[in-house]
Design brief:
TIM Barrel, hydrolase, Pept_U32_collagenase, EC 3.4.-.-, six-stranded antiparallel beta sheet, alpha/beta, globular, eight-stranded parallel β-barrel, Thrombin, subunit H
Length: 668
């Protein structure tokens, strides 16, 4: 099946206002949390706000996807079903889901997308989800171009979606249980404690320290800017930006960055085009390095890389700024690097201590001492003696530039849809026909009791063009060549009459565009139901309700374990499965030693242990698929708290219910 030519830029939104700005900055689609059950517990939005965002997006033919990508208990299925109906009535275009139990409910005909939380790594899994009724599937971030091509060869209808920017979960999505095991906060239920960002001491089987207080599970941030064309050619059609917790400035900047990259690609490849209408222009130069980031990596797209980890710090160091030339009692003097923008009051600087710890230094005031020499005097917000190891020649970076912040707090983009306009005579007056760049056409007419030629034809024609082209209050644009005057001669038309004709035409066009926006409905399943690729499912399948169990049974699965959150996997278990390998990153991989004289054969993939405070986890290495398992067990206090919560739920009249394969333990 030929690949679709329309390419979708998909941006995140913490709330409706951020979503609206994502659309204004060029997003073809936006994903946003609904009132509940999204994989970001603190990023929910009321239905009224989703409806407001939908109305703005549909003006441009952009789409709105609502996230419902957590696993649900049985007692949550009916509230989830009601919420789905509400967001469908609000106009949402699709639902992003993880829990297969939702497919067994009586849902409105809303389009379904398979979340990255469904862990789509193989062509077989992708094809199954397509055949089960998903029109769009979010592939695992860990896939290579070759693996993406293999998936695309098997998926002949569904759109392939891929994350191109933002924070990286070190685990395969949906395959991390560390947070729940240690704190009871489930990543699969939108409440991850981010244990992967903590520092760990790594020891080998003999107790020797391999790495001390390193963030060995913390990844750099994803940045596929250099790989967009290769991803298009591999079969990706939706390019997703991570960040439903991110602020307005991040979404504006990163959306604009990828909008420009994709538009540049379309200019070189005219067979490709954007999935929505309109062209965005910006009042700033997008630069992803100016937002919070941990450094960048393209992860595994081009194969395993040496430098994918943010092992020194999970914080944002910022851009290089300069160095300290003098430290005084209450201030320091700073020499800026060539080409660096001036300092501002309330900027934030960073530097590394002698122990390689990233330390923040927020500025109270910044004053230029010698603009030509780029020398500045900085007064920090805290006393200088509270900043360790701050001395002459300390290298500084800036991770908050207030000039940049203020720039993005203002209106920073304008998105317009190109139109052509034609003014014609009618027996009773004039007709204005307007067609937009997608082919939507309307015609407005106005009566003129008496047509009078303009006294000066040249000035009369210019006046007609001027008033017809006044589109500033609309989302449309027309260049002079797009306005065709097809009347017998340039008439004198009072400005008020012409303005009314134009307003009528463009109000019709906006309404016609909204009418032309067709929401895709849910795909029917292939019948009879296709078999799931495996006939046995462990806790890794995240089956947390009886409807999910019924779904997999209907698709031929014989053995279905319950989710980790059901608390049946009580011994040592894989709490995280990841393509990231600590051994490889520490140059301790047997494959790295292959062919090295004196080293080959001396390094084995023996387990390692990582420790943070009283948290101890074991790293085990599965070298055939080149994967790492982080192994541990659930804490007793997590089990005890869960038992108390279950008991308390009985008193509410809505008892907590979820899928178990074994009877509940005594007291639960």
């Amino acid at each position: 099946m030929p690949l679709r030519p329309d390419i979708e830029l998909l941006s995140p939104a913490r709330d409706a206002d951020i979503g609206i700005e994502a659309i204004n900055h060029g997003a073809d689609a936006v994903y946003i949390g609904g009132p509940a059950f999204g994989a970001r517990a603190s990023a929910g939005n009321p239905v009224a706000d989703i409806e407001r965002l939908v109305k703005h997006a549909h003006r441009f033919g952009s789409r709105i996807f609502v996230t419902l990508n957590t696993i649900l208990r049985d007692d949550e299925l009916e509230p989830a079903r009601r919420m789905i109906r509400q967001v469908h009535e609000a106009g949402a275009d699709a639902l992003i889901v993880q829990d297969m139990g939702l497919l067994e409910l009586d849902l409105p005909p809303i389009d379904l997308h398979a979340s990255t939380q469904t862990d789509i790594r193989t062509p077989e899994k992708a094809r199954f989800l397509q055949d089960a009724g998903f029109s769009q599937i979010v592939l695992a971030r860990e896939l290579t171009l070759e693996q993406i091509r293999a998936v695309a060869a098997q998926v002949d209808r569904a759109t392939l979606e891929f994350f191109v920017h933002g924070a990286l979960c070190v685990a395969y999505s949906g395959q991390c249980y560390v947070s729940h095991a240690q704190t009871g906060r489930s990543a699969n239920r939108g409440d991850c404690s981010q244990a992967c960002r903590l520092p760990y001491t790594v020891t080998d089987t003999q107790g020797r320290i391999v790495a001390h207080d390193k963030h060995v599970l913390s990844m750099k941030d994803n940045n596929q800017s250099a790989n967009l064309e290769a991803l298009v050619d591999a079969g990706i059609r939706s390019f997703k930006i991570e960040g439903r917790y991110k602020d307005m400035g991040y979404v504006k900047n990163i959306t604009a960055h990828y909008r420009q990259l994709l538009d540049s690609l379309f200019e070189r490849r005219p067979e490709l085009h954007a999935a929505s209408a309109g062209r965005a222009s910006f009042t700033f130069t997008p630069n992803p390095d100016r937002n919070f980031n941990r450094g960048s990596t393209d992860y595994f797209v081009n194969g395993r890389q040496d430098d994918i980890g943010a092992f020194d710090t999970p914080k944002h160091a910022g851009l290089p700024l300069g160095w300290v030339v003098r430290v005084d009692k209450d201030h320091l003097d700073v020499q800026l690097d060539a080409g660096v923008d001036p300092l501002n009051n309330n900027d934030a600087l960073t530097y590394y201590t002698l122990q390689k710890e990233l330390t923040g230094l927020p500025i109270d005031t910044a004053q230029p001492l010698d603009a030509k020499q780029r020398l500045w005097r900085v007064v920090p917000k805290e006393p200088l003696d509270t900043y360790p190891d701050l001395r002459r020649d300390t290298q500084l970076s800036r991770n908050r530039d207030m000039n940049w912040v203020r720039l993005l707090e203002k209106k920073s983009a304008e998105r317009r849809i190109g139109v052509t306009m034609r003014l014609d005579d009618t027996p009773d007056g004039l007709a204005l026909t307007v067609s937009d760049e997608t082919g939507v056409t309307v015609c407005a007419e106005i009566a003129l009791p008496k047509k009078e030629p303009a006294r000066d034809p040249i000035k009369g024609e210019a006046a007609l063009r001027e008033h017809l082209g006044k589109l500033g209050a609309t989302i449309f644009r027309a260049d002079a060549a797009d306005i065709v005057l097809a009347t017998r001669r340039p008439w004198f038309v009072p400005p008020g009459v012409l303005n009314a004709l134009r307003r009528d035409a463009f109000e019709q066009l906006e309404a016609a565009r909204l009418d032309a926006h067709v929401r895709q409905t849910r795909w029917p399943e292939v019948t009879p139901p296709v078999p799931y690729p495996d006939d046995t499912l462990s806790y890794l399948a995240n089956v947390y309700n009886s409807k999910a169990r019924d779904f997999y049974a209907r698709h031929g699965v014989k053995v279905i374990e319950s989710a980790y959150e059901s608390h049946e996997a009580l011994g040592d278990a894989s709490l995280m499965i990841t393509k990231h390998c600590v051994r490889f990153s520490l140059s301790l991989c047997p494959k790295q030693a292959k062919g090295v004289t004196g080293v080959q054969g001396t390094i084995r993939a023996e387990p390692l242990t990582i420790t943070h405070g009283d948290e101890v986890l074991q790293l085990r290495f599965d070298c055939k698929p080149c994967e790492m398992h982080v192994v541990g067990r659930m804490k007793k206090n997590v089990l005890n708290r869960a038992a108390r919560e279950e008991k308390a739920s009985l008193a509410t009249g809505v008892p907590m219910q979820f899928y178990r394969t074994r009877p509940a333990a005594a007291g639960r």
